[in-house]
Amino acid sequence: MNVFIVGAGVSGLIAAFELERSGNTPIILEASDRVGGRIATDLHEGFLLDRGFQVLLTAYPEARRYLDYDALKLKYFSPGAKILNPGSSYTISDPMRNPSRLIGMILSKVGSLSDKLKIRKLNLELTKMSVDEIFDTPSTTTLSFLRNYGFSDKIINNFFKPFFSGIFLENELSTSSRMFKFVFKMFGEGHAAIPEGGMGEIANYLRNKLNHTEIRLNTPVASVEGPKITLQNGEVIDAEKVIVTCRPDLVIDQLKGQFSSNRSVYNVYFSLEKSFLIQPLIALVSDGKFLINNLVFMTDISKSYSTNGKALLSVSVTKPVANEDSLVDLIKIELEALSGINAEFFKHIKTYKIEDALPEVDDMKANLPFTNSKLNDHVFLAGDYMLNGSINAAMTSGRKAAEAVLLSTQNPL
After folding, report:
1. 379/245 Cα distance (integer angstroms)
2. I need a surface site. Which of 8, 21, 325, 346 has the fewest CB within 10 A?
3. How far, CA to CA in Å, does 186 sit from each of 79, 203, 270, 318, 390?
4. Where does the secretion signal sit in this chain (predicted)?
5. H/E/C letters for each residue in 241-275?
6. In what order do the strands lie in the sheet with 221-225?
7. pTM for the whole structure
8. Widest CA span of the chain, in angstroms?
9. Are 284 and 162 in contact (CB under 8 A)?
């Protein structure tokens, strides 16, 4: 069967893998010079720079299906987070995983004792629910859910807002409560981790699982119309089946105007002589006047992120930036206020402005019937925008698209 896949992101690689397993030899058309889509790691000035701060949640069902965690040499974050504010900081931990920190968690300023008991209660409730059950619950905003659950404004502002704003890439916690509960469950049942050699190793691992797939890099697609694929260089390709894994409105005329713009984020990297956190933790900034949402010393998690002995600091900014030219200087001033280290010691390495960091999804789901992947007899769709913004969803959609293609060759859908 002549199957072409538009896009070599996670969805496209998974679709190709599933097609291979059924005896097919798909061809992937990728616009860029690499595989991985939004998952990428650059080597720059002796540092490994992920394009956007990302983590792998090891409890993701699809990640467990397709990835070998030992082969990726995962490095793990400690459960919890560090809350940073000018002149003060404190750590919140998961005492169920580290009982020695129980007293510290009870006494921490993140919220009331009632808030901490509610976190434990919510964790237990979600443990008993399947992922599908979570996504079948009524959807409200995350902020409304937290308030209705009884959490205080203190813990919402000190922890939930900065932590989940960094995940959802929006600052009002307007994301569906379904997604919040799913992510909360994943953190409770597994760990946040990164491959030793950067997040891009996930894409490399998936590519290396392909033995009979041709990947054509630097091959941008201009349009897909039925079984015909037109490349930007004018070449026309005839295909029996096409799986489109990029945003389909970019290449399919009939879908133009039907998708919202993706969420964006600034990811700014600095080097420092050594980490001022000295823990494998994400640090959150709860002061709403700051641009910085979160920061992580990647070298505290994996030493391989630096080959020159310097510490690598990743800073994420989810708020709108009025003047990009002054962004680095403003971040340095904030870093000095948070750490007490003079701003001049933070050496700027690189800034990524990631326009398509996460898709906007109104009706978030965990799964979809493979029939939903079919646009017409020749064209099938995949991508996390069909479910929710996550690696897990990207993998699910790729698998479902491949299943739909295979079934369509046996029986019309």
Report:
1. 11
2. 325
3. 12, 21, 30, 22, 12
4. none
5. EEEECCCHHHCCHHHCCCCCCCEEEEEEEEEECCC
6. 221-225, 228-231, 236-238
7. 0.94
8. 67
9. yes
Would you state the structure tokens that stand for residue 331, as one six-digit string? 């971040």
Residue 332 backbone phi and psi in degrees, to 5: -60, -40
Residue 109 has what pLDDT?
67
Amino acid type, 269: Y
> Which neighbouring-strand residues pair with 348?
270
Q: pLDDT of 8-20, one tens digit each?
A: 999 999 999 999 9
List the chain domain ranges: 3-39+199-258+361-408, 42-75+193-198+262-358, 101-188
- CB 99 within 8 Å of CB 93: no
Angle at 392 between CA 390 and CA 393, to 5 degrees: 70
What DSSP state is assigned to residue 78? Answer: P
Residues in the chain with pLDDT values less than 50: 95-96, 99-107, 413
Residue 264 is predicted with a pLDDT of: 95
What pLDDT is stored for residue 113 in this prediction?
A: 84
User: Tokens 């792998």 appear where?
Assistant: 56
Q: What is the DSSP letter of 226?
A: T
CATH superfamily placement of domain 3-39+199-258+361-408: FAD/NAD(P)-binding domain (3.50.50.60)
Contacting residues for 401 by C-beta, under 8 A, at least 6 apart: 11, 15, 243, 245, 370, 373, 380, 381, 382
Q: What pLDDT score was predicted for residue 88? A: 81
| Long-range contacts of residues 43-47, Cβ cutoff 8 Å, at least 24 apart | 44/349, 44/350, 45/308, 45/349, 46/306, 46/307, 46/308, 46/310, 47/269, 47/271, 47/305, 47/306, 47/307, 47/308, 47/310, 47/312, 47/349
